[in-house]
C-alpha cells in the first residue's frame, strides 16, 4: 500500500510518499520519496496548475539523437546501401536495419528478438514508419546481405570519411580478446566456434576471438573475427595484412605508421613482418631478456607520472630480440609492483590452502577411490597457469592397502625469485631509436586505449559483443561487425565532443539523462513533444550535436 508519512525533523514536519509491503512475514518500507514541507507541497501544486500542459509520457532521447547525428556525420546508412543489393520495396533499407540494430543494442537490447518491443517504446517509433514487423527473422534477412567482402567495403568507406575529417592514423594499437557463445559446433561445421582459453573462464562453451586495431584517438579502424582456438600470435599476421591493405586503400604510407602490440603477439616471423612494412613498439617476455631484470633501480631515470599518480621510471639500453638488435627500455612502476606483489601473495596463499585440503582428503581413508589421472586434473585446476613454475608437485601412487594416490607439493624458491623480479617491470623494444625514452614508454602504455575498447564491448548499455547466440559463422561475423560499428560511433562521438572534457562514461550519462516528453495542452487538448529540463552541459551538448533536428514533429 502507498500512503503519506509525516516525519518531525528538528521539530518541523516533513512529508514523504511511502510504499509498504509484507517481506518475509513483516511489513517493511520498500519505497520512499521525499516531498518536503506542507508549504513546498502547496507551492508545487500551484506550479502544476499554472503549467499549460499535462505530461503524458517521457522518453530517453539523448543517446538516440547522438547516434543519429554520428550516422549522418559518417554517412553510415548511405554507405551500407551503396554496397548492398536489395530490391526497392516498402520498408527499411539494409542500412536502416543495421543502424536500428546498433541503436537498440546501445539501449540494452541483447538480441534481435527484443528490438521490436524496444522500438515501440522509443521516440524513434515516431520518426520511422514502415509496413512490416521488426521480428528476428527480418533482421537475419538483412544480415544475409552483409558478407565479409561487403563488411570490408563498408569499413573502407567509413575509414575514408574518418581520414577526411582529420583522423588519419599515425599510431595503431592492436589487441585481441574473446567471447564465449551459447552455440554448439555441430559436426565441426563452424570455422569460428571452438573451445579455447576463455577470459570469462567458460571452458564449457565454444568461443570466438576478435582482434581490433585503433588509432591514437581511440577510433577503431580494423577488426577481425577469427576462430576460438587460434592463438593470438597466429592471428596477428593477418591483422597486420589487413592494416597494410586498409592503409593502401586510404593512400596512406604504411612506413609512416607505428604499430603497438603486447608480448602475446611476439614471434620471429611477426616481428620481421612488421619491421618490413612499418615501425613498432612492443613488449618482450621476461624469459627473452631475463638479465635486464637484474639492472639495479639506481640506473633508472624518472620519466613521468601517469594518470593514477604513479611515477614511471625507465632504463634505456640495446638488446637483441629474434636475431636483431633493438632500442630497449626496462620500465618500473612502484604502484604496479605493490599491486602485483599483493595479488601474487593472495593467490599463492589460496593455492597452497587448496592443495593442503586436497592432500588431507587424499590421506583420509574415507571417500571414493581416486586414480592418478583424477588427482592430476584436480591439481591442474588448482594451480593457476602463472604459478606452474613456482609451485611444484609430485603425485605418488597409492600405497598398498590404500585407495588414493598421495600428493607432495613445494615452492620452488629460485623460480619464485625469478618471478618476483618481474613485478612492476616491463621490457619494451622498438625500432624507433630516434624517439626519446619517455615517448617510447608513453606510446606503449597508451595501449590501454584498445583495452578500454574491449571493456566497452562488454558493456550491455553501450555496444556489447556478448552474449553471442548466433550459430552460423556469417551471422556471428555480422553481429561482431555491428558491435564494432557501434564502438566506432561512440568513439567518434567522444572525439567530436572532446572540448567538454568528459570521459566516455560521463558523456553517456549526460546523454542518457536528456529526455523528451509527450504532453497534452490543457486548453486545446492537443499533444506535442517538448524537451525536458537539462543542465547547462546537457543544453550545450544538445545544441553542439544539433539534436533538435531529430525531434519528431
Q: What does this entry look like structurally?
A:
The chain is α+β, with helices and mostly antiparallel strands. Among the domains are: 1-50, no CATH class; 280-443, no CATH class. It is 39% helix and 24% strand. It has helices spanning 38-50, 62-74, 76-82, 94-106, 115-120, 124-127, 136-143, 148-164, 232-249, 268-277, 334-363, 372-382, 413-420, 437-445, 448-456, 473-496, 504-512, 536-544; strands at 2-9, 12-23, 26-36, 53-60, 171-180, 207-215, 220-227, 258-260, 279-284, 301-305, 311-321, 324-333, 391-396, 406-411, 425-430, 515-521, 527-531. The chain has a nine-stranded mixed sheet, sandwiched between helices. Strands 1-2-3 form a three-stranded antiparallel sheet. A hairpin with a 2-residue loop joins strand 1 (2-9) and strand 2. Helix 9 runs parallel beside helix 10 (268-277). The longest helix is centred in the middle third of the chain and has 30 residues, at 334-363. The two termini are 40 Å apart. This is Mobile element protein. InterPro entries: IS1634_transpos. Keywords: Coiled coil.
